[in-house]
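User: Show me a protein chain along with its predicted structure.
Assistant: Here is one chain, sequence first, then structure tokens.
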Amino acid sequence: MSSRNQMYELSLHRVMFQSGTPYPCHQQDLDAYNNQPYSHRDASSFFTSRDQAMRTAVAQNNDDHRTPSRDEDDAIARLAAGTDSAFQSCGPDLIIKMFSDLDFVFFGGYLRGKVEVRWLSREEFEHRDGTQDSLGITGRIYPGFCETFLNAYMILRRAERRNPFAEMWSTMLHEMCHAYDLVMVKPDDFDPSDGHDAYFRTVVHAVHRRSQRLFGLEVIHWDEDYMEDHFMSDAWAGEERKGHYTRDRHTRDRHARDHFMSDAWVREEHREHRPHRHR
């Protein structure tokens, strides 16, 4: 594997499909997420409520019981092959090359043409975020379109606890959850300053669960402060009390009306479903 300093330098180069880390993609896929692809500004057809966007992410895009299409199976196979080799050798371009498949598998392809994504140097990231400490940032450009930036310095040179690829993977999917909010939700139904609220945490937990099941890779670190603060059914969490919801261990027994997903919705969408426990 390239040294961390080499990876940092490589992250600042333009990503091209025919060079760098091998991954089966096309330049048009890279261009769809790399060169300010939003050529038009009418994204209103995608807008929905925050509640419906969360339900789509949890019950549709990341439903463990859904049968993937052939195209999605192909994307999963490409990601699986890429992750298998990434822990031995990869460059920072790999996670950018994977973005189209990550979008398709975890977010239903809703981000395509709506997100600009790239690495930033330490100085560029500090200029945009006001700090050097964040791993990534995602912000709205205008309604329905956003930009995601990864902090090359923190992920590639400072993240000594973890393999650089594991940090790239978890950070990218975390930021994609933010991008999904910004792309899908009506602007007047979502304040980006809410950050990691219960809606976001529910989506990121659904993505985390599916990432672990399909690829054995986490999105949520065990020590993150929102590890349990989300609205998922106890059935999904491995509990026996179907039809109630988990916000955290202290509020687990609150009535479903105090949460974002109703009992009726779970009975309608997930009747007879029990999830597999994940590694």
